[in-house]
């Protein structure tokens, strides 16, 4: 039992509260401090019996969320009050009506947007997705709901260490799937980077620790390099009379990891580990000219890479980001990214959405979105209004709208349109007008005729060609990437689709009755999974259209009957974690199983997922499927992010114990310089030294470079690592990496 010093805790709570007031002081009007004090007292009293998983008083959490809102996002008194009270309705006796009576309509609306939906959800639905959709419904009215939610999520991620492993995976993946892209979209780059780094810390902790250690090892030499690099620039800018500051900004841990993974390179080969940032204090009217003047000074000393110039001052990004980026070659032969911006631009880059208010009319309504994000807010509103499919379908569309890269294209009259990277001519048509999109048959890009699926590039001038005979088809959804276009195409298809869905539903109902099976959400969800359709409606539609023949539904019954006759027990879909534990306790697998699964770490039956082929020693989690019991996935599986984010209630923890020597299939990719006898040496190491059986080997040699893939059977990750170590010693081998297949 941990001894708690209540007096010390009381002092710590007051200390954090005073810090909050001190930081908020510049933003407060007369009377605001009184309301904040009242909110703090209500929250403190409502949560007084509650503690977090770490053992700390629960009030620390709302205080820290309010602190993030003020210090890191720059929000004002209404947001502070809402942040302090954000869990009160969900976790205590307080109702929304009480909040409205005590703190007003605006605070109540924000807290309503932040309060999770309670109740039982249908099979196959996702509580996380439903809650996110509810939260976004308030976005077009008041963006502070999303900003406070991001602050809440940041605090949850910072305190994730006290949570059990499977909860860590679920929360971290949900963060990476939604909240990090959302923070990016709202221009909160600092928070986005921290969320990504924390995701890596909890999902691939060894990689995270390795990169942190490497960054620390190179810190001294890096600082020395930065000092030498900026010295001549500083001198020249002072001579020219600029008021400025220069700082070296290290690249985030996650972005280094991403670069290593994408380019398949070691840490030492990531050349842009940091960026130099030059921040100017200048008048608004001189901003552009001064930034270009500084660019001229930098490129006088260092040669720029012409392909790496990014001018987001003339054309700001759609989330309001403004800066001038260039990559230059240092005197030591190293590429260095230089970012040039003003203090105003830096504030917006660091604190995103909220920083816009600082540079606008102070009396403007805080809840109104800034112009840089108006279009995006409108797109989200359109998506919310038109989407009557499942919440998971909505999530997919919404995530598609959280794009990172953009292309700048022009109408025939020269109007600029900012589109997501990967946008097609059809996306552009819907961007112009719904009617233009619906009748689009092609386009002229830079006077050349192209098809509707032509991908647009920066600087393209696009003219849309239409025909009154054209109408949207299902295939169009695979052509477009913007959520606006998807929503409009779905609207057009919906009427025709609705009748097919109703027909399909009737056929299924009739067929199940004939087979003496119940027509309920559980059976429908199993049918959906059996026929590999994403949603129940998609399944009905395919039956209604005849794509899935009604006679093939009998195959589902045979499959179910066959499964019942098998002696091995499987897990059915369950609605909550307590039922997991009960079912897990009743299941016992064969003696040689290597996985311990669930809260009590029982030995139960499982299937290894084909998408990532886990082997003993891999970091894994269990996922309860509809028809196949528990499937085991690697935490780094390509599908892990989506499974953990949308179906967290079906995730159970799993870990390997010491196991018997059972062989698992793994893949290695080998790159080296070709020579006579290389293949022979490689196969010798595999078959002779470690008695490993190979399933296949493919080799390709081109201009002296040897590339090969080997699939082989190993016992564990340690076994695989030992093999990789031995293969690395073979003369001519440069790089060996594991791959999923």
Please give a quick description of this structure.
The protein has 741 residues and is an alpha+beta fold.
What would you report as the Rg, rounded to the nearest angstrom?
29 Å
User: Which stretches are low in confidence, meaning pLDDT under 50 for 5 or more residues running?
Assistant: 119-124, 361-370, 566-593
Secondary structure: helix percent: 40-55%
- Helical element count? 30
Q: Terminal Cα separation, in Å?
A: 49 Å
- Decide which structural class fits the backbone: alpha+beta
Q: How large a portion of the residues is in β-strands, by DSSP E? A: 15-25%
SSE diagram, text form:
Blueprint: H1 6-24, H2 32-46, H3 60-73, H4 77-85, H5 88-91, H6 96-103, H7 105-114, H8 127-137, H9 144-158, H10 165-185, H11 189-203, H12 205-217, H13 219-239, E1 244-250, H14 253-263, E2 274-280, H15 287-301, E3 303-304, E4 310-311, E5 324-329, E6 335-342, H16 343-351, H17 353-358, H18 371-386, H19 391-400, E7 406-410, E8 416-420, H20 425-432, H21 434-438, E9 440-445, E10 448-450, E11 462-466, H22 476-479, H23 483-514, H24 521-530, H25 536-545, H26 553-565, H27 577-586, E12 595-597, E13 607-608, E14 620-624, E15 630-634, H28 640-646, E16 651-656, E17 664-673, H29 678-689, E18 694-702, E19 705-714, H30 717-728, E20 733-739
Helix pairs in contact: 1-3, 2-4, 3-4, 3-9, 4-7, 6-7, 7-9, 8-19, 9-10, 9-11, 10-11, 10-28, 11-12, 12-14, 13-15, 18-23, 23-25
């Amino acid at each position: 039992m941990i001894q708690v010093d209540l007096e010390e805790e009381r002092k710590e709570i007051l200390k954090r509260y005073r810090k909050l007031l001190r930081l908020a002081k510049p933003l407060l009007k007369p009377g605001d401090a009184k309301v904040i004090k009242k909110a703090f007292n209500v929250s403190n009293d409502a949560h007084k019996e509650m503690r977090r998983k770490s053992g700390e008083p629960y009030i620390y959490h709302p205080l820290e969320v309010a602190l993030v809102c003020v210090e890191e996002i720059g929000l004002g008194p209404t947001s502070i009050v809402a942040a302090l009270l954000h869990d009160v309705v969900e976790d205590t006796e307080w109702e929304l009506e009480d909040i409205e009576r005590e703190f007003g309509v605006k605070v109540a609306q924000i807290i309503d947007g932040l309060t999770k939906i309670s109740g039982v959800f249908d099979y196959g639905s996702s509580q996380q997705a439903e809650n996110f959709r509810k939260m976004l419904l308030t976005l077009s009215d008041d963006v502070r709901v999303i900003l406070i939610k991001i602050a809440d999520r940041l605090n949850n991620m910072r305190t994730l260490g006290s949570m059990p492993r499977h909860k860590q995976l679920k929360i971290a993946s949900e963060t990476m799937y939604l909240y990090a892209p959302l923070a990016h979209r709202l221009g909160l780059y600092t928070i986005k980077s921290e969320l990504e780094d924390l995701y890596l810390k909890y999902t691939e902790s060894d990689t995270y620790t390795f990169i942190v250690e490497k960054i620390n090892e190179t810190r001294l030499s890096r600082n020395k390099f930065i000092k030498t690099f900026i010295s001549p620039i500083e001198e020249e800018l002072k001579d020219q009379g600029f008021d400025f500051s220069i700082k070296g900004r290290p690249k985030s841990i996650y972005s280094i990891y991403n670069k290593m993974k994408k380019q398949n390179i070691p840490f030492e080969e990531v050349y842009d580990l940091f960026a130099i940032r030059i921040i100017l204090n200048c008048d608004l009217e001189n901003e552009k000219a001064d930034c270009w003047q500084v660019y001229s000074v930098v490129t006088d000393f260092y040669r720029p890479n012409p392909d790496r110039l990014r001018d987001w001052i003339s054309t700001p990004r759609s989330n309001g980001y403004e800066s001038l980026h260039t990559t230059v070659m240092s005197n030591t032969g190293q590429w260095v990214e230089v970012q040039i911006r003003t203090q105003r631009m830096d504030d917006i880059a660091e604190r995103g959405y909220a920083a816009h208010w600082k540079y606008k009319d102070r009396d403007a309504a805080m809840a109104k979105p800034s112009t840089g994000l108006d279009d995006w807010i409108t797109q989200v509103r359109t998506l919310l209004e038109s989407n009557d499919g499942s919440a998971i379908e909505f999530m997919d569309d919404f995530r598609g709208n959280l794009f990172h890269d953009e292309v700048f294209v022009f109408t025939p009259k020269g109007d600029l349109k900012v589109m997501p990277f990967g946008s097609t001519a059809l996306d552009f048509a819907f961007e112009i007008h719904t009617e233009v999109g619906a009748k689009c048959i092609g386009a002229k890009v830079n006077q050349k005729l192209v098809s509707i699926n032509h991908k647009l590039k920066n600087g393209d001038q696009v003219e849309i060609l239409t025909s009154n005979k054209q109408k949207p088809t299902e295939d169009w959804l695979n052509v477009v990437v913007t959520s606006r276009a998807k929503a409009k195409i779905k609207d057009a298809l919906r009427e025709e689709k609705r009748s097919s869905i109703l027909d399909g539903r009737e056929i299924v109902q009739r067929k199940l009755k004939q087979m003496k099976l119940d027509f309920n959400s559980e059976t429908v969800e199993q049918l959906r999974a059996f026929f590999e359709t994403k949603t129940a409606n998609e399944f009905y539609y395919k039956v209604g259209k005849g794509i899935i023949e009604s006679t093939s539904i009998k195959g589902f019954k045979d499959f179910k009957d066959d499964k019942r006759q098998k002696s091995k027990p499987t897990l059915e879909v369950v609605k909550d974690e307590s039922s997991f534990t009960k079912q897990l306790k009743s299941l016992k697998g064969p003696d040689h199983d290597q996985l311990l699964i669930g809260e009590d770490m029982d030995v139960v039956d499982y299937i290894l997922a084909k998408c990532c082929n886990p082997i003993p020693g891999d970091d894994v989690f269990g996922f309860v499927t509809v028809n196949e019991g528990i499937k085991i996935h690697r935490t780094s599986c390509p599908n892990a992010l989506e499974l953990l984010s949308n179906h967290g209630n079906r995730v159970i923890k799993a870990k390997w114990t010491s196991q018997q020597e059972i062989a698992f299939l793994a893949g290695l990719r080998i790159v080296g310089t070709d020579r006579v006898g290389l293949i022979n040496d490689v196969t010798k190491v595999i078959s002779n030294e470690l008695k490993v059986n190979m399933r296949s080997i493919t080799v390709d040699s081109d201009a002296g470079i040897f590339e090969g893939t080997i699939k082989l059977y190993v016992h564990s990750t340690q076994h695989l690592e030992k093999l990789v170590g031995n293969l690395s010693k073979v003369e001519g081998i440069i790089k060996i990496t594991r791959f999923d297949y």
